[in-house]
Amino acid sequence: MQEALRLARLGKGKTSPNPAVGAVVASKGVVVGRGFHTWANVKHAEVAALEEAGDAARGATVYVTLEPCSHQGRTGSCAESLIAAGVSRVVAAMEDPNPRVCGAGFRKLREAGVEVAIEEAARKEAERLNEAYAHYMRSGLPLVTVKAALTLDGKIAAPQDNIGWITSEVARANVQLVRHESDSILTGIGTVLEDDCLLTDRSGLERSRPLLRIVLDSQLRLPLKSKMVASARGDVLVVGTSAAPVERKRALEEHGVEVMLADGTQGRTDARLVLEELARRRYLSLMVEAGALVNWTFLDGMLADKVLFYYAPKILGGLKSLPVAGGAGRQRRLDAILLDRLELHTISTNEFAVEAYLAKGARQSAGAR
Asked: What predicted TM-score, i.e. pTM, was given to this entire model?
């Protein structure tokens, strides 16, 4: 199973909107077939592993990181392929959360006389591997991660000159790997006007589809000469409101930028409508790399699912330096947004990252009993 998980990781960033899956065929204690899925290669992991195994698959055990599919999609049913190959046993790391599968693959295998088992020890790692896919299947929305680079005192920007980086080159390279595993990335117009950012995936690794770059821009102020517009190749979506000048919308579209109108309250864009549109397009994950106000919009509205904060050994101090989350904030300590499943990751010398999930199932008052 560990080999199957290793194979599945080879597909990271190359399978969306499908999950990353690895499969191993073992016969008499010897591995006779290996496979993993990528969107471009079409074949699912189980089919690729069975093809490599050939006749040796008959009577063999197949280890797979996700329940074999039971329906016809771009390819045939993997459960049926396993049955046709004559395997005797299938060991999976987890059940597929896709409602179209969700136990049906296991049931089809058992009905054909194939022994089925779930390796509980591998479930957590398999769930983490396809975290965005599982979240999308269970919630109907993309997994939203608020990412930020911070000083130790929680600041993301100085009040005046912001030339230079908060974190090191090593940390920034790590961020590119996170971007690579994301389907889409979002920022606010303020960040674009300040930094003229690209928000591209610069990992150099193969993707199943381009990283969709999104800008919340209620008045459609995105400059036509900005790097983002100049580099648009069907991968830039600007979200404005119906109050924005029609000529600005037309100009952006003429430069290859897609414009979506999502009216919210007080003349602002509605971020939830953006998530619903991403879900409709089967984008499984969204990375928010923005300023304090946009960060707070996603955190306060519980639209974010997790945070990924990179901390550098620096202190800005002052009351005018921007915090990671601005807006009105919570007015009482008892009302603070709660996080759980917190993990610390060493990034480089003196740098670390905090990864944690918003505790949406819990009462948000820390004082509640």
From this structure: 0.92
